[in-house]
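Lab notebook: predicted structure, single chain.

Context: the supervisor wants predicted structures on file for every construct in the current expression panel, including those that have not yet been purified. This is the next one on the list. No modifications to the sequence; it matches the entry in the shared construct table.
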Amino acid sequence: MSTVCPFTFSELSLRLCVLRVIYADYTDAAGNRTIRAESFSSRTAANFMKKPLTTTPKYASLPRRFAAMFYDSLLLVAVLIFATVPVIIVTHGEATNSGNPFVGTWLFMVSFLFFAWFWTHGGQTLGMHAWKIRLQRDSERAITLWQALLRFMTGLPAWIVLFLGIFLCGSIAENHLPEALQKLRTLPWTVLIAPGVLWLIIDHWPNSWRDRFTQTQVIDIRTEKDSAKTPK
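Prediction complete. Output recorded below exactly as produced.
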């Protein structure tokens, strides 16, 4: 039996030409995809190289923090003295009891607003401005009112322990303390004050637990080119 070819020579040539064209188009498309991939990789690498490297902030040192706190404490005392004027007006000049809850709450609010206003408006109290340090968020922006409240409240225990130790060292504490605390007055004054001082050091150590808990940081701005730059 003779085998019959299903295609003529001309038809076979035409089909080969079509296959050659399809193969050429596929090769060009693959080559273009390779070029585009290489171009994309080059642009990505270039953008990565141009991306500025993040630098670790320079945290404010402990002596500068304490110097600013001492400066601010003097200002706060002056503010609290003026804050007692409305109390004197309400009581018509009569002295209030030492445990009056309304007076204590009022002075507490004044103290918080004193720090919160400065912290949320530029991140610097007058003492911090004098010593070139600034309180800010981790994103280099001004802290929120909620963060200011957290930072204020977490700092209170150390001050309470310190002032309690100072109060125990004074003679006025003899008639204003319960019997359980009266026994502590027999201890040396260094032992009474040391816990509060150590607690303050731990709280204000650069990048301490208090900074991480409130997601804030106190940085040294002396190295900034523009010292007037403030977080927005």
